[in-house]
Amino acid sequence: MATTKATKLAHTIASTTSSTADLDYAKTLNNTGVTSTEFDKLDGLTATTDELNLVDGSVSGPLSHRNLIINGDFRINQRSATSRTQTSSEYNYDRWYYDGTYLYQGVEDKNVRNGTFTLSWTDSGSDITAHYVVSTDSSNNNGPDSPLTYTSVSNGGQITVNEGTEYSKHLWIRFGGTVANLSKVQLEEGSVATPFEHRSYGEELELCMRYYQSHQNPPLCGVAQTSTRVRVSAGLPLVMRTSPSSTLTNTGLGLMKFYDGDTNKNVTGIVSNYTTAYKMSYLLSVNSSLAQYRPVLCDDGSSAKSLVELEAEL
Amino acid sequence: MIIENAIYLNDTEGVNNSIKATINNIEMCIPLDSANRHYEEIMRQVEAGELTIEPADTNE
Asked: Residue A142's pLDDT band (boundaries 50, 70, 90)?
């Protein structure tokens, strides 16, 4: 990469007002590699060392999608949490679990391979601490509540993963201190901390939706199996990590309704659950008679706010 | 994770296909999937003798 840039710079120099000495200098760089000082001499760049590391190959990780942490800048908040620490022993902001003391994020096993990783973050205060653990137990004790032994890691410090086989273990990171001051968390391959990778909002949201989805007035359709039961399904916009847990809010209040072409009936409970990583699917009871065998669809009306939450977190 | 009122749900053929439970004061339907963290914790508590899952209500 550095050679290519030096060559381009040499061409640029040759096409303008370069001297023989300039060209000789560029050729030398082309053959021997380039330091940050030399780059600045050549084209007046004010590139940082991190940026130069990216172009000259010192960073072994990819040039894009470097960050294994999802929602590292806390932009995504599908649960509408009031803070990162709103509820203990739960996920609040997307992908971030709070146990009452630490803020955790697990990197899914399918994204963890052996090698050296670098963890970095910003702290608008001055008391953030970080720890990590590689979890190879696939049966139990694999989540943030588990009694695993964590190892301290500094800002810009390295994490080595060599347990088990590749793609077989979760990598857990946790932060202590005033976690409201934490931002731009990045975990990347290699031994160099590069600038935080700003992904688009849509891309970050899609990454989060592998683990949690929220569907207000969900697009459930199906059939009235009996006069008081509806069998309904809807495909998910993104495949989830595994079969999710379902929470249907407001069903007890009757705010989720199904329409059979003639009348709306309120949902009163869940009879069975057929939800998978690809679809939400339920057998629900309703509070009075629908026309049996008619198609039905979820029709909450303009003011109702029934909600289906799907959770497949680590 | 505080788990209460765990009961199996049946499919239309009478086979258990999920668990309904109150977890941290929120009612959820949990699939019988060992990769699901709620199911994993339910099974851990069952094996530890801390939780019992009631059989499905066949009158539902």
From this structure: low
Inter-chain residue contact B31 with A314, CB threshold 8 Å: no
How many whole angstroms separate alpha carbon A176 and alpha carbon A182?
10
| ipTM score of complex | 0.96
Probe site for chain A from B19, B22, B30, B37 (most A CB atoms < 10 A):
B37
Residue A36 has pLDDT above 70, yes or no: no
Instruction: Yes or no: say if A110 and A138 are a contact pair by the CB < 8 Å rule.
Output: no
Q: How far apart are CA A144 and CA A138, in angstroms?
A: 13
Residue of chain B nearest A225, judged by CA positions: B12
Provide, as residue numbers in chain B, all residues whose Cβ is less than 8 Å from the Cβ of A312: 36
Determine the distance in angstroms separating the CA of B58 from the nearest CA of chain A, rounded to an integer.
10
Instruction: Kindly give the pairing relationship between strand A151-153 and strand A182-189.
Output: unpaired
Taking a C-beta distance cutoff of 8 angstroms, is the pair A251, A269 a contact?
Answer: yes
A241, two tokens: 């990590």
Q: Hey, what are B45's tokens? A: 């508590």
* Residue-wise pLDDT tens digits, A207-231: 999 999 999 889 999 999 999 999 9
If 0-12 CB within 10 Å is exposed, 13-18 middle and 19+ buried, where does residue B55 land? exposed
Q: Tell me the two tokens of residue A313.
A: 């977190």
pTM, full prediction: 0.83
* Contacts (Cβ under 8 Å, ≥6 apart) of A232: A220, A221, A222, A223, A258, A281, A282, A284, A296, A297, A298
Which stretches in chain B have pLDDT values below 70? 59-60
